[in-house]
Amino acid sequence: MIWMAALSTMTVMALIIIQVLSEGLPVLSLRFFLESPRSMGREGGILSPIIGTIALTIVAIIVATPLGVGTAIFLGEYTREGKVSRVIRFGIGCLAGVPSIIFGLFGFVFFVIYLNMGWSILSGGLALAAMILPTIICTAEEALRAIPYALREVSYSLGGTRWQTVTRTILPNAMPGIFTGIILGVCRSIEETAVVILTAGSSLIIPTSLFSPVRTMSVHFYILAREGISMEMAYGTGAALILLVLLVNIKANFLLNRYVRKKR
Amino acid sequence: MSPQNKIIVWEFSFYYDSHQALKMVNLSIRANEIFAIFGPARSGKTTLLKSLNRLTDLVYGSSHTGTILLDGDDIYDPKQSLTQLRRRVGIVFDLPIPLPMSIYDNVVYGPRLRGTTQKGLLDETVEKSLRSAVLWEEVKDRLQTSALRLSGGQQQRLCIARILALEPEVLLLDEPCSGLDPISTTSIEETLTRLKKEYTIILVPHNIQQASRVADRCGFFLNSELIEEGPTYQLFTSPKDQRTEDYITGRFG
Fold it and tell me: How is domain B5-248 classified at the CATH fold level?
């Protein structure tokens, strides 16, 4: 009877996707992607939300990847299990459990107001980075732990320092796992609404710098639907969002396979 | 201390937490000899081997008393550079563990860590090391393929070549033939006999026969203690200790 579980999961997923795509796909056209929204989004396309989404995600990943992977390396390779690592891990666990709206609130209070960055790509990206950090740390740590001890021993026995062992043997082999975590982070950043609405604003103008406010696709969707501006455009945005996430995943899988094959 | 002693192990005891893996071992190993360490499983052979280039340092909670001298210098001296020591005293493990990269990259892994980047030098090192480990002829046309595709015997010879690329002074071999067929074993034994002109070799043999075939001198370990050491011939024909005799004649172990 266990297949029932799988079946119902698949059904729900399929229903959601079919619903959004069947309503949204007819709206999609080249112009929809190449024009910015006009009159609050009732007309035009979604160019500026697409740019906003990508910009925020890039900032979040650029900030979160080195911090997250660095933390994982520190925890896995540079410390013995002990008080320090337990405290850090406890902190990461807590971060992972915090609802995203709290990250939004934190980002609003800290980045937007206290650091005076305003509603901007930078504030939003940093808040998103904080949100995806636990995911990246956990997957990276898992990937590092999967590297056999023997490989480390070999590297040390050939006169490797700890740093050389990490950079030349451990990281290249843990790359697929780490990469998976980063992609998870990318997808979470793309689809996140609560954090972004509080930290990046909801401007429909194409951003010109890191300090420009932006609206992401999911926020655009939310506002269009919530304020009853245009369900048609909302579904169009939703469909584009699903396609974007799909595209990221396919591309990531492709890159991953190529990397793994090159290693063999 | 006589000058020909390459390594002197002096009253060396080793502990993993509270478990004592070596008890007061005293041993000297001469330059350019093959010294075989044999004994039953868990008698401390591997621990002694890994202590000689301080790979045991990686084990959390381990400690030691006594010391080990390499060319008269204390390897546990705080001023001792670990990377330098491990380049001088190379180890080959019981299972061949190629790094998941090409054959070429495996061999130059050590030299690259040391800072050698010149392509010509590295190429030379690869050919020389692979020739010494009797692997060159088999792989010379596919140096860029992954080392994971080699057979077990080839992988083990690659591991030997990888150590030789660092031009160490001492070679530690921990049952280098354990996973290998008789033909690969023979070729590795021949390799060792040839290598001893340039290196001091300490070998944990696959079995007693191997010790008697290749070793100049042997040491017998039992329950973390060095029971007896001496020239191979003498140890095998007229052991001084009853336990050595029992082990060699197969009464236990």
Answer: Rossmann fold (3.40.50)
